[in-house]
Amino acid sequence: MKKKFWKASIWSGIIAGFVMLFLEMIMNPVFLGNSMWGPSRMMGAILLGNEVVPPPGTFDLGVLIAALVVHFPLSVVFAIIIGVLVRKVNITIALLIGAAGGIIIYFINFYGFTALFPWFANARNWVQIVIHILFGITVVWPFKSIFKEETAN
Q1: What are the pLDDT digits (tens) for 85-120?
Q2: Domain assignment of residue 132, given as a range
Q3: Which of 25, 38, 89, 133 lies 20 to 30 Å (CA to CA) from residue 64?
Q4: Which residues contact residue 23 at a Cβ distance below 8 angstroms, ignoring those fewer than 6 apart?
Q5: CA–CA dist 37, 43 (Å, integer)
């Protein structure tokens, strides 16, 4: 694949990953009354073990670093997959594919990965569905912008 595809995929994964983390930290406390650090503890537990899963749902730098080490590579991998699917379609179809991809990622994360990481079952909720849909949509915007820009040359 072209160099521009990889550039678009990596950047869109990083951008969507940051947006997702921000939404996690805002939406979980606001809508569910959970700690803003709970999702990062769940992600960090993939590397550190389930003893870091809340409670306590407090800040821990080591757990946050472990969460980021897990989160961003997965965000980029999912962005590559979405990028393959949307690279040749118009923006409207691409956004729909991104939203559908977000739903699929939700099911992979909260139903598939629970075989290995059972604590993810505790986070099956509408907030996570919305966040994952927004992740998929957020992947599409920068991807299409960067990829279109590069293919126009």
Answers
A1: 999 999 999 999 999 999 999 999 999 999 999 999
A2: 3-151
A3: 133
A4: 131, 134
A5: 10
pLDDT the model gives residue 81: 98
Is 59 strand, coil or helix? coil
Q: Tell me how far CA of residue 35 lies from CA of 16, 53, 57, in angstroms.
A: 21, 11, 5
Residue 1: the pLDDT is 63
* Dist CA 124 CA 126 (whole Å): 7
The DSSP call for residue 87 is T
Reduced to 3 states (helix: H, G, I; strand: E, B; else coil), residue 57 is: coil
Longest dimension (CA), the chain: 52
**Straight-line distance from the first to the last Cα atom of the chain, in angstroms, rounded to the nearest whole number:** 16
